[in-house]
Structures are given as structure tokens and as C-alpha cells.
Amino acid sequence: MNRLLAIDSATDALSLALADERGCESLHRVMPRQHQQLLFSLLDELLHGRKLSELNLQAIVYGRGPGSFTGLRIAVSAAQGLAFSLKIPVIGVSSLETQVRTLLRTEPGVGPSRILSCIDARIGQVYGQWFDWDGSVLISRGEAFVAVPEAIEQPNGADTQHSSLLGVGSGLRFLEAMPETIRGQATCWPEVLPEARDMFLTAAQALEAGEVQDPMFAAPDYVQTRIGWKTLAEQGRVA
């Protein structure tokens, strides 16, 4: 059993999860603009009096986004601080992928589908990414993007003629502005937000492949542009 702590704060939800030999425990709270104030109190609640230093964690997993700029910084900074203190690596996981995995866990009857995962970008745009689900394997179809709703198009790729079209995430508040090929065909779950417990499958695959990061190189995926944020390595040493 992998021993991992996961944090996602890319959306209005603050989500934490712990995986160890006792299984998986998680806390998921929809608490807009309160992530920074409540993250560590929620972590204490998750630990039930245990100390992180005693859990022999292998990595800290963080939701790298895209999503709220402030929320992404909070998750990255928390992951860096915890990983540095424990002298362990970090693993960044797409919040859009996690959102799809949350849907697939909570709606286990979902059959082969093409899925649009989208998060409200708060500026009349959405962050989005397309995935194909064949009933057992989730495959990304292209990179994460930011777009106005009417410009979203399905990617070329696998034949989905006999598959369902699904939508998940807060970006679906703009569904009526999306093209008819999406608006008129998709079954949607706009209330689903990424839950940290659904980061563990992707994180375990990264851990097995050795695809971990030194905490110094943890960074959010803003998608829109390279604004402001620099990894600790890029910032250099402070005199």
C-alpha cells in the first residue's frame, strides 16, 4: 500500500486525503475563499492526532490545476512545505483528470464515454480537457486548455460514435453557450468537483514510474500563461 497525502484546492472545494496501511481517509469541504485559513486545521482533523513524521509517507500529492490561481498557490505551497519538512518528494496531478476520476467513482455505471472536464475560470472562460473512458482505462485527448465556451470543440481521435458524451465540473455553468454538438448531447454533472482521494491512482502510477519531483520544482499549471509564479529553483537563493 502506498503511503501518500493528497491536497487539492483548485476549485471551491478544499480536499485532503491520506492513504496508508489503514486504507484511505479523506475530507472534502466546499468552502470558497477559506482554503488558506482552514487547510491545516482540516489536516489535523484528518490525522486524528497522529503526526505526519510518524507515517513514513512516500510523497505529498498536490492538485496542480488548472483552477483558481490563489487555490493552486495554496496547494503547491502546502505541499512544498510539508515535503521539505519530511524530506520526501512531491507529485503534481491534474485537477481536471482528478475531477473525471471523482465522477467515475461516484457514478460507477458510466460506460464508454467521451468526457469534457471543465472548471469555471471566473472570466467568462473555462479550463477544460477532453478524456476518453473505455470502461476501464482513462485516456486524455489533448492538453488542458482555456477557452470561451462557444469555442470548445471535441478533439480528433478515437471513434466515439457509439459512446456517450459526458460533462463534469463547474465550467458547465456555461453549458448553454457551448456548441450544439456538446450542449445538445452531453449528460452533465456540474456539481462534481475534484476530490483528493481520486488523485491516488495517478499518483501511484507516477510513483511506480519514478516520476516524482523535488519539492523545489513544484509549480501550478495555470494554462493561461506563465504569470508570476516561479518554482523555488527558478527563484534562486535569497541572500
UniProtKB/TrEMBL annotation:
<comment type="similarity">
    <text>Belongs to the KAE1 / TsaD family. TsaB subfamily.</text>
</comment>
<keyword id="KW-0012">Acyltransferase</keyword>
<feature type="domain" description="Gcp-like">
    <location>
        <begin position="32"/>
        <end position="156"/>
    </location>
</feature>
<dbReference type="Pfam" id="PF00814">
    <property type="entry name" value="TsaD"/>
</dbReference>
<protein>
    <recommendedName>
        <fullName>tRNA threonylcarbamoyladenosine biosynthesis protein TsaB</fullName>
    </recommendedName>
</protein>
<dbReference type="InterPro" id="IPR022496">
    <property type="entry name" value="T6A_TsaB"/>
</dbReference>
<dbReference type="InterPro" id="IPR043129">
    <property type="entry name" value="ATPase_NBD"/>
</dbReference>
<dbReference type="InterPro" id="IPR000905">
    <property type="entry name" value="Gcp-like_dom"/>
</dbReference>
<keyword id="KW-0808">Transferase</keyword>
<dbReference type="GO" id="GO:0061711">
    <property type="term" value="F:tRNA N(6)-L-threonylcarbamoyladenine synthase activity"/>
</dbReference>
